[in-house]
Design a protein that fits this description.
globular; disordered C terminus
């Protein structure tokens, strides 16, 4: 058995190295660059518009937050964002940022920003395609995601029907496998370890409580998940952001040196941790990009599965929520974590060397302890609890949608029960191999998804241009909606007439 496990570890290490190597990172960032060019740098050129119609709309447009009726299987725009953020704002925003600084130095944060900038348009494109190619299932629920735009988008191109269907199955399979690893057991294991370290709570107790709580939410379906996440996500994000901001303000004199350290480290103007400059730059680029992707998931095709359940019809409207999702996750939350760590004095800003033996979340906890004392560790443990648990809720929906595509709508109840049962396993097992395997499956999801985004990039460009011409330039032209939404809109007009 040990020999088998060892073999699996070696094979997985090789596959993981390939999946998350330089070619994959180039593909991820390259797709973001392509979509940025094709949409004419939408995230910058229409900055005011997408801010006004996403986070700004929460305060002035009742349609953004309005709940759908009890019998309506759709969710609001804000609920779709919160459920997506529930899955993306997780341990990566704490442990991931710490790992990037430890392995790539302060310069890794710059490359994390670069990934986020272009990732905004990758996520935008995924959501546009998700809305445009979504379908209704037998329960009248919206079903969208990479599997649908691969099958009905790429698959409708001449000679691509079989490849589109095959890639859709690949994506769904990897999604289901990743949901049990990085979306469940690994997150629960992080919570259990931190609660045990900070408060002495046994792992089994933590696992059992979380299993019960998650079961009550997950088995209730998307509307119940969305109802919980729209309350949990804003609360946890605001508390963590305020906590990190206090540290940054407390160390306000370090803000300038932190910026300088990040920029110099990113371009090799100094060695990372006292090492060789060339390798330092390579590590900064690799770790910054890798952790950025893991944090905001742009390019993996995950969050689009819940965004597609939104009650919007305009694909670009939901696409703009995708831009905000990446912005909030990486530009705001990850950046504040990085500044809290770098300004706390546990990193030498001149050399980039970490002046601590702590790793992962413990490094961030030490940074918080410089201001909050012993309460710093408890703060991070509670933050991990909220962040990781919300990730489990979000990923339960992703895995459920992948499972539904493979085995049908009625099969999702079985998936949910098994998913919830695995929570107790995650809390009580050593999951080093499981974490590595889930990393691999998570990365493999990106390959068919990015093929779909690139193949359908022309469609995204046309839909975006159509929206800009109508909504921003005021041209009187017909909107580009999905076939399903066009039929529904015509039906509603007939009723009104």
């Amino acid at each position: 058995m040990d020999g088998f496990v060892s073999t699996v570890e070696r094979v997985n290490g090789a596959v993981n190295g390939f999946v998350w190597g330089l070619p994959m990172l180039i593909l991820l960032v390259g797709t973001g660059i392509l979509m940025t060019i094709l949409t004419r740098v939408f995230q910058v050129s229409h900055f005011k518009h997408w801010v006004r119609n996403t986070i700004g709309g929460i305060f002035k447009d009742k349609h953004v937050t309005a709940h759908t009726g009890k019998e309506d299987t759709q969710i609001s725009q804000f609920q779709s964002l919160c459920t997506a953020l529930a899955a993306t704002i997780g341990t990566g925003n704490i442990a991931g940022v710490a790992a990037a600084i430890l392995s790539g130095g302060p310069g890794a944060i710059f490359w994390m920003w670069v990934v986020a900038f272009f990732g905004m348009m990758t996520n935008f494109s995924e959501n546009v395609l998700g809305i445009f190619y979504r379908r209704r299932n037998e329960r009248n629920e919206w079903c969208g995601g990479a599997m649908y735009y691969l099958k009905y988008g790429l698959g409708e191109k001449k000679g691509c029907a079989q490849i589109g269907a095959f890639l859709a199955i690949m994506f769904s399979t990897f999604c289901v496998l990743a949901s049990f690893g990085i979306g469940n057991m690994s997150q629960i294991n992080s919570i259990a370890a931190n609660m045990n370290s900070a408060f002495g709570i046994p792992n089994f107790v933590t696992g059992f409580i979380l299993m019960v709580l998650a079961g009550l939410v997950i088995v209730g379906g998307l509307k119940r998940i969305a109802s919980v996440t729209e309350r949990l996500v804003p609360f946890m994000a605001v508390i963590y952001v305020v906590g990190a901001l206090i540290i940054v303000v407390f160390n306000a004199d370090k803000i300038g040196p932190v910026f300088v350290s990040i920029i110099k480290g990113a371009f090799g103007m100094k060695a990372v941790g006292g090492g060789i400059v060339g390798s330092g730059v390579a590590y900064a680029v690799q770790w910054g990009m890798k952790r950025g992707v893991f944090s905001n998931e742009a390019g993996l095709g995950s969050s689009v599965m819940v965004h597609s359940s939104s009650n919007v019809r305009e694909p670009v409207v939901q696409g703009m929520w995708g831009i905000f999702e990446v912005f909030a996750d990486t530009i705001i939350v990850c950046t504040l974590t990085a500044f809290a760590v770098l300004s706390s004095g546990i990193v030498d800003l001149d050399t980039g060397a970490v002046l601590s033996d702590q790793v992962s979340t413990a490094l961030v906890a030490e940074a918080f302890s410089t201001v909050y004392g012993r309460a710093g560790s408890a703060f991070i443990a509670i933050a991990i609890l909220f962040f990781a648990f919300s990730t489990v809720l979000g990923w339960s929906q992703y895995g459920s949608k992948g499972f539904e595509y493979l085995f049908g709508t009625k099969s999702t109840r079985l998936f949910k029960f098994v998913f919830v049962a695995f929570i107790i396993i995650g809390a009580t097992m050593d999951l080093t191999l499981a974490w590595d395997l889930s990393d691999t499956f998570n990365g493999l999801m990106a390959i068919p998804n990015l093929i779909g985004v690139i193949a359908l990039s022309g469609t995204v460009m046309k839909i975006t241009k159509n929206y800009v011409d109508r909504k921003i330039k005021g041209k009187d032209i017909k909107p580009m909606l999905s076939a399903v939404d066009e039929i529904q809109e015509l039906h509603e007009k007939e009723i009104v007439a």
